[in-house]
Write a structure and sequence with these properties.
CATH topology of the largest domain in chain A: D-Maltodextrin-Binding Protein, domain 2
Order of helices and strands of chain A: HEHEHEHHEEEHEHEHEEHHHEHH
Radius of gyration of chain A: 21 Å
CATH superfamily of the largest domain in chain A: Bacterial extracellular solute-binding protein, family 7
Number of strands of chain A: 11
Shape of chain A: globular
CATH architecture of the largest domain in chain A: 3-Layer(aba) Sandwich
Strand order of the largest sheet of chain A: 7-6-8-5-9-11
Strand content of chain A: 5-15%
Oligomer: homodimer
Number of domains of chain A: 2
């Protein structure tokens, strides 16, 4: 057997990171008390991320022996949710919790730090952020707005959405009116879908009255609460427009820099726990939801390989357009795509698929 | 939208768990100092788990403000690796780090707490241990031997192994001599493969001289160091015999019970970090290894769906045989299988596969 030379570097990096986190936590009790206001983008009642984000304050407080005190606010408790990014940047809100994809209107590049169409699964994202360039690139982008970001949870993959007819090819998509926003929506538009965004609570009525023909909302465990199984016959997979999405704890950077290393370490430890808990909850509640939805005589369908291939091509067009006028987008997209290509081959082979 | 009533219970559970971990860590500095000896089953030089396990002592020490001191030993530093389980049970070694599959000779049921053929991926395992019955069942089994276990890392999926000819059906397996041990080996035997275990360092010579026709060792990043690409033409996927395997920190339970809640919490926090780091490293180093192996003119192959189906049936036979004489094995296998069935449908759909 040959030597493992190439791994020495990553060993050293892992050692530095771990030691640093550990040292940070060792002196918690000497720190002066700081008080933070935190707004979550997810309501307490929401499965997975509502639980995870609302637990962060008490976890961080205890890890810092209460030298960090966090007053928790529900969505819109301090600012509109889409204002969290700017509010954290100025310090009007000290801490926000959201997927960075909430803020793509500000900077479409932020989507890569959350979820993009045909993007990576949770393992791939963990790898890109921790061992690839993801963490470094996110730091760079957020620091320009005086924000520190920490990976702090996952939303499970979304479903592909509810349709009132079968989609056997992209020809069947043409002319369809669909509730879907963001980069997934822009991708559908390339194939002749007429997309629109609307509040979750308005979907049922719009679909029932034929204002729309299709809608995506979220993952099965959330979708089941929308009642769409009463008015849409087909539930499609995969949710190619939003695979596993990673959530970020956003902290005003001036305030972050004022924390001791020990206090900062507590944020990392709490977020590690959030990552594990959100995976555990997110992956365990979908099966029962699928059983429930099936019991309502909904037909489960998967998009054909050809349809997915054409949707993927459409997404690459959208991505290329965005990269043309945005150097930052291009830089991040390139890093993500290179990492995903290498990871993707491994992902496929280890699932028994040759490219 | 309807209410999320059914999630209140899991919210409460998550709250209790998180609060408990947090409270535990809050009073680290009042604890009396305890000294532990730890033996890892993975050498420091080994990618992923060598790094992860060797970092645990300093991480736990710092998290407990050095009230827990851990002297770290490499594999065989105190006892033979296969003796770690018994040594932790008696307290001859305070802490061990291993996959519980190391110890299937003692109790084949332990395989389910590590990896079994056609078992779950890392997300499924996290979910079963944290939200399903996995953690509770492991606690029960280990407690009988006075051991406390904590999920503390992942090994990435293995490859299917090296073959000197193409395997187009299970007929091609018949009569093959293969280096593979454990439950995967027993499964192959059902289909006429003659299996044998041998030390990793002996595989090259055995394959070169025709003593064996095939061999599995590990994942691509480890396999590439074995040089088998020089003497085997085909590298097969998936590693159905060992998907993602979860690693366990084994602690003598008498000593574990003597720790304060704060000290115990530090073990959990360090192991959460180990889970994240091992996923990040494990998923990011395989792509380059695949490139390297391909550059040596090795042919990548995937087992045919029919071959996998027959191997899966053979595994179910093996599993049923083991369950027949072992109530504990049956109980754990049933829990695992029920969870995997529900998770598996979600896993398939979210990857775009209808069952």
């Amino acid at each position: 057997m040959k030597k493992f030379k190439k791994y020495y570097l990553s060993s050293v990096i892992a050692l530095i990171c771990t030691t640093s986190l550990a040292m940070q936590l060792a002196h918690a009790q000497k720190d002066k008390t700081v008080r933070f206001k935190m707004q979550s983008g997810y309501a307490l009642s929401l499965p997975i991320l509502g639980e995870v984000s609302s637990n962060l304050p008490k976890h961080i407080e205890a890890l810092t022996n209460k030298s960090v005190r966090i007053q928790y606010f529900e969505p819109r408790g301090l600012v509109p949710n889409e204002g969290i990014y700017d509010a954290v940047a100025t310090g009007a809100v000290d801490i926000g919790y959201a997927g960075l994809g909430f803020f793509v209107q500000k900077n479409p590049a932020l989507a890569y730090f959350d979820a993009v169409p045909f993007g990576m699964d949770s393992n791939g994202l963990i790898a890109w952020f921790n061992q690839g360039e993801g963490g470094k690139l996110r730091d760079e982008v957020l620091a320009k707005n005086n924000i520190k970001g920490i990976s702090c949870g996952f939303n499970a993959a979304e479903a592909g959405g509810w349709f009132n007819k079968e989609i056997n090819s992209t020809a069947d998509l043409k002319g369809l009116k669909m509730r879907i926003a963001g980069l997934g929506g822009r991708t559908y538009e390339k194939l002749g879908v007429s997309t629109q965004s609307m509040a979750g609570g308005d979907i049922y009525a719009a679909l029932e009255r034929g204002v729309i023909d299709a809608a995506e909302y979220s993952m099965p465990a959330l979708d089941q609460n929308m009642g769409l199984y009463e008015i849409a016959k087909y539930y499609y997979f995969p949710g190619w427009h939003q695979p596993a999405s990673i959530q970020t704890l956003l902290i005003n950077k001036t305030k972050w820099d004022s924390l001791s290393e020990s206090q900062q370490g507590a944020f990392y430890a709490a977020c590690n726990q959030a990552l594990i808990t959100s995976i555990a909850v997110g992956e365990s509640i979908q099966g029962e939801a699928l059983d429930f939805i099936r019991s309502k005589n909904v037909n489960f369908r998967v998009f054909t390989p050809e349809t997915l291939k054409e949707l993927n091509s459409a997404w690459l067009e959208v991505s290329a357009e965005l990269a043309k006028d945005n150097v930052e987008f291009k830089k991040i997209a390139d890093s993500y795509n290179i990492f995903q290509k290498s990871y993707g081959e491994w992902r496929n082979l280890s699932s028994g698929k040759l490219d």
